[in-house]
């Protein structure tokens, strides 16, 4: 994969800024509502549960289990020209949040429902200006790579 | 909406659906609209309302191409593949409210020979979620997103490739009875289905809808348009519903919740008919699994019985619930579900020849789009003077 071709999101979007600042440091940082303390993901300006407009950024353990996945065989996404690759939805271990991310380091035939995964923080973008979270077989501790 | 006063589908029309049309989109749309007006028994100039969809021929183009003299309103219903059925609600309100007399729903596109889906502009809601969450993870098409739903459903409810195969094969079998279908002369056997290349597994080639060149049109009016020779087709009730939340699939709870559940609950509550009273169903079939998912969400089955409905009770002509007798998006053509309404109308009039559902009186039509918005209508045959 040449992740340099992945289109950069707006890294300064106030609803995502803390997330991208976190991944750049190899950390998984997500917003939690200051009003009802539920997770605010995907992030919204107003908490749908308590209507609070305030949230705080909070670090989470970068590990989870595979909730669903698709093996992509027809390349359509910029930066993802090499097929097959796997897109998963990962249920985090320490919060009721699911994240979308590629699953790496596992052959498609070896992927299994609920398999434990941990985060890999991988540079992306034309000047490697942001860091995406990829998910691979569970490790004792997260690793960063460039 | 449901009331004693209903609107009618007064006329329908379409081009043949092909991979490459040698005509402009405008020419395709003109043919479909002319055919619908002729079918309705009105001059085209009496069309005075238009509802279209993103990426297809637009309202001003329709006004200009048909030289419509006095269009009173125009709209885009923009909930993806749920739009066509949802637009029946809007059109019904327009004609029953006296705002317009003949509202036309139009789809016209060169969706196969022109820019393909992944190359066309995305009209999905909350674009920041697409760019911030999905594109960075290599996910940018409906097949990829919905494959994630399909995989989880298969895991939770025991749906298998056999079930998905029957949905694709039934669609193709029906299309082989439909001369307007893009796949009219192309049969599909199980072996070929199973060997289809991976698009976004579990979706392989034949699990995915076609992209098509063509056009179709539906005219809604307070006038039934039937006569001694031809029954009228009434729009008995229509509902739309939106998933919680409508703009993200990853964090719904339950994960497989969709808007059609809400729409169908309201719909069946509003009419004195139930799923068992339907003689056929036209189900939005962007991918095979979405047919199973919607049959369940609309109340035709439960997670425990959906497999039996598909494989044993039967979804082909002659089965318990014939589904997509035109071939659907999978094998007739991709007109974003407006072609499903065209087919239901013709079935209720008894015009479908070798693919006719004998004596069809009530048909449900569903729409699905934009990450799980849903819509559903019941069309009913109305014999004799209205």
Automatic annotation (TrEMBL), chain B:
Q: Domain (Thiolase C-terminal): give its ranges.
A: 248-378
Pfam families named among the record's database cross-references: Thiolase_C_1 (PF22691)
Molecular function GO terms recorded: acyltransferase activity, transferring groups other than amino-acyl groups
> What's this protein's name?
Transporter
User: Sorted alphabetically, which Gene3D superfamilies does this protein's record hold?
Assistant: 3.40.47.10
| Provenance organism | Jiangella asiatica
